[in-house]
Amino acid sequence: MSFSVTHGWRVMRARLRHSRVLHPQTREDRNELYFYLNTGMFGFATGGIMAFLPVFLARLGASSSALGWLNAAPALLAVVLLIPGAMVAERSTDQVRVRVRSAFLIKVTYLLCGLVPFFVPPERYDLLPAILIVIWLLKSFPDSVALPAWTSVMARGFSPRRRARVNAVRWAIMSLASAIGSVLFGQVLERIAFPVNYQVVFLLSFALSVFDPIFFSKVQVDPSTIPQLQERSTPWSRLAEYVRPAFSYRPFVRYLLATGPYRIALQMGAPLFSLFWVNELAATDGLLGFRGMLGSLALVAGYVIWGQMAGRWGHRRVLFVGAVGVAAYVLMTALSPSPWWLLPAAVLWGVSVPGVDLGLFDLMLGACPEERQPLFGAVWSMVASLAMFAGPLIGAWLGAAMGLAPGLMVVAALQLVTTAPFVVLPRDG
Prior knowledge:
Number of domains: 1
Strand content: under 5%
Distance between the termini: 41 Å
Oligomer: single chain
Number of strands: 0
Radius of gyration: 21 Å
CATH architecture: Up-down Bundle
């Protein structure tokens, strides 16, 4: 045993010593390093404000409809803003700078979520859910510019062969950082009185997340070209000319039609989970933090596994298997007899989600031309936003009409049914 441990340590040290990421030699190597550092900082925020804001609203007494709007309202605004945001992004040849500036504005909303409760008297805490939803809504404005710019940088910063591996590792790093963040933030929530505990978590999320655009600013890609549009008499005609290539490119349209219904079903459970955990299972913040950690650690393993399997199976098969696993997670949650049941369910979720994420993203990149990545990425994000708008509202309606557990069961069934159109997707990525 001693020999095997010593040998393993030597092998690991040798790999680290010769790692092209830790010792970058090319521009692509350096891009990979800064992508990973940027992702890690974003992951901490995911384990903080993004994980616990819905829980905070639930503890403030927010309804399922309010939690539905927490996801739906920004998504609805994104539908309107993403195409204009892509047009703004494509007016610059420096997509890195565009994303960095937009990301800083996004982080300001984290700061506001942490500060606003200090200025609301306890007797008016009933107003806090609405105020926080509005603040979260404001994030959609810089998001609409940041997303297409990020898609362009991701697509152009790495070769197609390297990009799949980088994306898998990036997701794994984000999951690991989110796991660490969930545990640490969960402990903060347990040790500080409500509601200041949540405010501290949101402010810490802000402080860590500002390093995300700082690291991203170090990424280097060749200057992008600015598309030349014909002069039109109205803004609507110019907008129509701009988006026409996306909706006339058949592989991309087929991708949208095949994955759109599933995206809606995937988002239906969003407003129900936090309410089910808090109101039905009486889960503590510490347990939810531990659940978040287990789920994120499983995500790390899932991204590594599915990143390798995608090359063997093809992204379509990876997407289908991951989608079945996510549906099983939703059903397992609905049938939970105790809050401790959430822990193995979180592991199932963590192992399954990477298949969905990698499959959807890589199939999208394979379905659009490289020279118009900001536009096609914006349309893809717009469709995803439509799903994020419709899905939570439908899920909230199901929860109110049927109850939380039956509503989750219906969501699981719909997620399975909407995998059927995947058959028209290409076998490889």
